[in-house]
């Protein structure tokens, strides 16, 4: 079996730093990675999106994501709050959550895994490193991983 | 990657385990594959029970590759023991199986699988999988202490 691209993998990015989200989008575009990206700017919006509430009710334009790329330090609800909510909610519990944070504080890493993060990535400092990281992320999660079927 | 990392493989097919070992060696990856042949052995290994009590020879692994269909104790039972009874919440456990049954996939994630792979059935696919696993987990992912 040659590894295949599973049907369009969509990633929801929750990050209050619009520039970081833009850099991810740009890197994905540049490397022509087979990913769909949707983004929200804080933890409360992330939960609204996942639950299909308010402006995210239309699943045609806001599909339930294959996985969540989650920043930790965000206004309103933090990444830890979102993680707790997701793991406590039947129907969301199986969603793979990858932390994408500028913190490499062992306490944050420890806590994220304790609360059920699938993986923990640190935001790279250069565009080159970001591209390499996104390529590894795409190859791992999109080519090889099988996701639970969404909502 | 400076120091050698340990990966625990729980898989009842010894030939497949050897193929995986070969793929790791071919890729020149500095990782050590520790092989156990069923779910009970996987639990014994993780808890450091005999014959795995010597942590120099059988170090606690960085990640686990777990088959689902195994004698004595299957992969689902291992997952729930690891996450609940033993409380190893931070250990990445990647299911590696023949099944692409959506019910198996859902159940595995619900029981706390980190990720779910279908076994490649060619040498090429195996090599690529090892390469991708290594790049993602051992180069980019941050582990808890």
Report on the structure:
Chain A is of the alpha/beta class and 151 residues long. Chain A has a single domain, classed as Response regulator (Rossmann fold, 3-Layer(aba) Sandwich). Chain A has five helices and five strands; from the N terminus they run βαβαβαβαβα. The radius of gyration of chain A is 15 Å and the shape is globular. Chain A starts with 8 loop residues before the first strand and ends in a 7-residue tail after the last helix. In chain B, 41% of the residues lie in helices and 17% in strands. In chain B, helix 1 (14-26) links the parallel strand 1 (5-10) and strand 2 (31-36). The two termini of chain B are 16 Å apart.
Secondary-structure topology with pairs:
The complex is a heterodimer of chains A (151) and B (145).
Chain A: E1 9-14, H1 18-30, E2 35-40, H2 43-51, E3 67-70, H3 79-88, E4 97-101, H4 106-114, E5 119-122, H5 127-144
Chain B: E1 5-10, H1 14-26, E2 31-36, H2 39-47, E3 63-66, H3 75-85, E4 93-97, H4 102-110, E5 115-118, H5 123-140
Helix pairs in contact in B: 1-5, 2-3
Any guess at the CATH architecture of chain B? 3-Layer(aba) Sandwich
Unreliable runs of chain B: none
Distance between the termini of chain A: 28 Å
CATH fold group of chain A: Rossmann fold
Which architecture name of chain A does CATH use? 3-Layer(aba) Sandwich
What is the helix/strand order of chain A? EHEHEHEHEH
Radius of gyration of CA atoms of chain A, rounded to a whole number: 15 Å
Provide the structure class of chain A: alpha/beta
Count of folded domains of chain A:
1
Low-confidence stretches of chain A: 1-6
Order of SSEs of chain B, N→C? EHEHEHEHEH
Neighbour order of strands in the largest sheet of chain B? 2-1-3-4-5
Q: What's the total helix number of chain A?
A: 5
- How much strand of chain B? 15-25%
């Amino acid at each position: 079996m040659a590894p295949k691209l599973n049907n369009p993998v969509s990633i929801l990015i929750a990050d209050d730093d619009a520039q970081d989200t833009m850099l991810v989008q740009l890197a994905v575009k540049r490397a022509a990675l087979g990913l769909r990206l949707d983004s929200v700017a804080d933890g409360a919006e992330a939960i609204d999106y996942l639950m299909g509430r308010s402006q995210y009710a239309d699943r045609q334009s806001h599909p339930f994501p294959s996985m969540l790329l989650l920043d930790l330090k965000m206004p309103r609800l933090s990444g830890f709050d979102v993680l707790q909510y997701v793991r406590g909610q039947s129907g969301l519990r199986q969603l793979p959550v990858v932390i994408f944070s500028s913190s490499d504080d062992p306490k944050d890493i420890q806590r994220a895994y304790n609360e059920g993060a699938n993986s923990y990535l640190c935001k790279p400092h250069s565009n080159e490193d970001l591209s390499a990281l996104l390529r590894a992320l795409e190859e791992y999660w999109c080519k090889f991983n099988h996701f639970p079927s969404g909502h | 990657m400076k120091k050698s990392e340990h990966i625990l493989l729980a898989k009842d097919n010894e030939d497949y385990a050897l193929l995986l070992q070969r793929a790791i060696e071919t890729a020149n990856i500095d990782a050590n594959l520790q092989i156990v042949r069923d779910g009970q052995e996987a639990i014994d290994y993780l808890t450091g029970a005999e014959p795995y009590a010597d942590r120099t020879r059988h170090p606690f692994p960085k990640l686990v590759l777990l088959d689902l269909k195994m004698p004595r104790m299957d992969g689902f039972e291992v997952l729930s023991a690891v996450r609940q009874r033993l409380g190893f919440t931070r250990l990445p456990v990647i299911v590696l199986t023949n099944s692409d049954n959506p019910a198996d996939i859902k159940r595995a994630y619900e029981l706390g699988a980190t990720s779910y792979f279908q076994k490649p059935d060619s040498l090429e696919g195996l090599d690529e999988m090892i390469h991708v696993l290594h790049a993602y987990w051992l180069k980019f992912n941050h582990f808890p202490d």
